[in-house]
């Protein structure tokens, strides 16, 4: 597996991350590794927005957000 080094992390940031790691019973390395894996598993915001724009252009969808949300929420009542 590859290694990653991050330099110039502010002390407050490191301390907060270490506290979060300790709260979950993990080392800082284990905690950050899990966070990086989770982050990498999520789509990048810019890529996601480009995919949405491409899909809208391809399908010609013009539904406004409020109508989409009303349809989504209709099944939740």
Account of the 3D structure:
This protein has one domain (11-74). Helix content is 68%, strand content 0%. It has helices at 11-23, 28-41, 45-59, 65-74.
Summarize it.
The chain has four helices and no strands.
Q: What is the residue-averaged pLDDT?
A: 92
- Number of discrete domains: 1
**Beta-strand segment tally:** 0
Radius of gyration: 20 Å
What keyword list fits this structure?
77 residues, mainly alpha
Give the SSE map:
Layout: H1 11-23, H2 28-41, H3 45-59, H4 65-74
């Amino acid at each position: 597996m590859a290694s990653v080094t991050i330099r110039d992390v502010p002390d407050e940031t490191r301390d907060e991350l270490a506290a979060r790691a300790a709260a979950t019973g993990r080392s800082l390395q284990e905690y950050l590794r899990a966070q990086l894996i989770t982050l990498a598993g999520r789509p990048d915001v810019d890529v996601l927005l480009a995919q949405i724009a491409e899909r809208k252009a391809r399908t010609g969808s013009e539904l406004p957000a409020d109508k989409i949300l009303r349809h989504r929420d209709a099944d939740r009542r």
